[in-house]
UniProtKB/TrEMBL annotation:
<dbReference type="InterPro" id="IPR023558">
    <property type="entry name" value="Trp_RNA-bd_attenuator_dom"/>
</dbReference>
<dbReference type="InterPro" id="IPR000824">
    <property type="entry name" value="MtrB"/>
</dbReference>
<keyword id="KW-0804">Transcription</keyword>
<feature type="domain" description="Tryptophan RNA-binding attenuator protein">
    <location>
        <begin position="4"/>
        <end position="70"/>
    </location>
</feature>
<dbReference type="InterPro" id="IPR016031">
    <property type="entry name" value="Trp_RNA-bd_attenuator-like_dom"/>
</dbReference>
<dbReference type="Pfam" id="PF02081">
    <property type="entry name" value="TrpBP"/>
</dbReference>
<keyword id="KW-0805">Transcription regulation</keyword>
<comment type="subunit">
    <text>Oligomer of 11 identical subunits arranged in doughnut-like structure.</text>
</comment>
<comment type="similarity">
    <text>Belongs to the MtrB family.</text>
</comment>
<protein>
    <recommendedName>
        <fullName>Transcription attenuation protein MtrB</fullName>
    </recommendedName>
</protein>
<keyword id="KW-0694">RNA-binding</keyword>
Length: 75
């Protein structure tokens, strides 16, 4: 489980990147989603209600734990 004060930064590398917040608790559910267009940046935070964040599409994601690019197959 992440620190509740952890932020992540998501920068869309294409239009239509979806960022989905997932709930904390016994039943994991979607509770919020955002669509980003190329170049848009979203700063998200883990909270009492958000235990996970899912990213669909090509995006750069930065956390205190490092940097990752979504939407690309590893070579």
């Amino acid at each position: 489980m992440g620190n509740e004060k952890d932020y992540i930064v998501i920068k869309a590398k294409e239009n239509g990147v979806t960022v989905i917040g997932l709930t904390r608790g016994t039943d994991t559910r979607f509770h919020h989603s955002e669509k980003l267009d190329k170049g848009e940046v979203l700063v998200a935070q883990f909270t009492d209600h958000t235990s996970a964040i899912k990213v669909r599409g090509k995006a750069e994601i930065q956390t205190t734990h490092g940097h990752v690019t979504s939407g690309q197959e590893d070579q």
